Amino acid sequence: MKLLAGVPGWTVNADVIVIGSGVAGLTTALNLRANNLSVLLVTKARIDAGSTKWAQGGIAAALGPGDTPDQHKKDTLIAGAGLCDSEAVDILVTEGPEAVRKLIARGAVFDKSDTGEIALTREGGHLRNRILHAGGDATGAEVSRALLAAVQGDDGIEVIENALAIDVLKNAEGRVCGATIHVIGAGSRDGVGRALARAVVIATGGLGQVYSQTTNPSVSTGDGVALALRAGAKIADVEFIQFHPTVLWRELSESGQQPLISEAVRGEGGVLVNIKGERFMQGKHPQADLAPRDIVAKEIFRQMAETNSPHVWLDARKIADFKERFPTIYASCISNGIDPTTEMIPVSPASHYASGGVLVNMVGETSVPGLYACGETACTGAHGANRLASNSLLEGLVFGTRISGDIAAHVPPQTQPVEISTDSNSNFLLDPAIKSELQSTMSKGAGVMRSKESLEETLRVLEKLSKKASTTPCIEAWEISNLYLLAVAIVHAALERTESRGSHWRSDFPTTSANWSKRIIQSYSNTGKWELETVEVK
């Protein structure tokens, strides 16, 4: 099954198509060029508009005195709540330091200590200071800047901005050999076209817009995961949606991307208090306010429910150099009428990161030959049930390198796709008008806290919304169709997992069960049928 779209009116060729321009996509593209492969880099908005530049926290890597990859691994496994793939974590933490050094060699500049060495800080779930920052709370922006400068200086990388990848193309053997792309704008590559290549790498980032409130930008509609599903690829761990515990609370009518208050603020001494002004994380976890994100988010949710309040408070008034240490956060607070140096910051959880995604092996290949996935779009198993803070940028760096090496070594020459079907009966498209109701029902029934009752009600609403079809292909219709697929997948997995673990919290199954040390894998057939299986975690 494919999205309803027009007949392609133009064709372009490259060795590899990379969809997405965050840390995962840019790193993959640069490493493909190091292997002398031409790259077509397709990005949905402007090349710098993805989630990477919004990352305030940093990059985790065992670079400090006395720190080791093994210690980093232990912290990652604990945060992952028993569902991490041990091999994937080994790769992440052992290859991470070199990946960061390579990033620095490409021009990324990180904050220095008074002695001139890279300053390493600590975030939730880490027992060592191993987080590299840039510009205080603008790490993602610096990483994006450095990688973009390298990409834009390479003639072997063609960039197409304002383009949505609609579906993949396959050859007669069922191998992915390209993608259909819709470009917004004037010129010969306006409208729907097709790009042909030896392989396609999906690095489209997250799916936060499936919820009403999220830290993700507006382009984060899970297009890559949905594209992979329609191509026949397997997905895994999609029930584990990480809700960042401290997002600047605004009126519920203000949906879309919400300002993030990095946990680095708590790392520098900020504390959480409830509406009564009482600290509540002490005694809930040995690391108190710096506990892993899922634990903090759940406790904030509990405090909000008990006090009937829409938020709690983050008290950062004792951080003497707040404005200098966190300039981006300071500006966000001021623009929303809050002075964090004299006032407490209202915060509440919001959708932040998808630990699951397209199931891949240790070189980033999906279950469909020729189709790869990297970064938040992918599920390597490294994050398990709950991503450890600042492991996301690292994953993009490490696995982007691995993907490029595998493509260079093993992917066969380019082939022609089979004839593209224009039969509208085999395609689907939903009405963009359902977006608000889809987001609100997901937030209400499949958000921080879930239950059998809330999830079944969410499925009923989603089924009703699926009847509202559209016959007018456009960006908004493609996006909502993608969000619908992801919403259904999330609810299916959340219903199946009858326990609470990591960032999946069931109020009717509040404890973690040893019987659920397994991964939920889903696929979507050409006829629109969902298939679900469970697999023991390695």
The secondary-structure class comes to alpha/beta
The total count of strands amounts to: 25
Helix share, percent = 25-40%
CATH architecture title of the domain at 245-350: Alpha-Beta Complex
Classified by CATH, the class of the domain at 245-350 is Alpha Beta
How much of the polypeptide forms β-strand, as a percent range? Answer: 15-25%
CATH topology of the domain at 245-350: Flavocytochrome C3, Chain A, domain 1
Physical arrangement of strands within the biggest beta sheet: 8-4-3-12-21
| Helix count from the secondary structure assignment | 13
- What characterizes the major β-sheet? 5 strands, parallel
**Low-pLDDT sequence parts:** none
How far the N terminus sits from the C terminus, by CA atoms, comes to: 32 Å
Radius of gyration: 22 Å
Query: Mean pLDDT, rounded to whole units?
Result: 92
The CATH superfamily of the domain at 245-350 is identified as: Succinate dehydrogenase/fumarate reductase flavoprotein, catalytic domain
Q: Could you say which overall geometry the principal axes of the C-alpha atoms support? A: globular
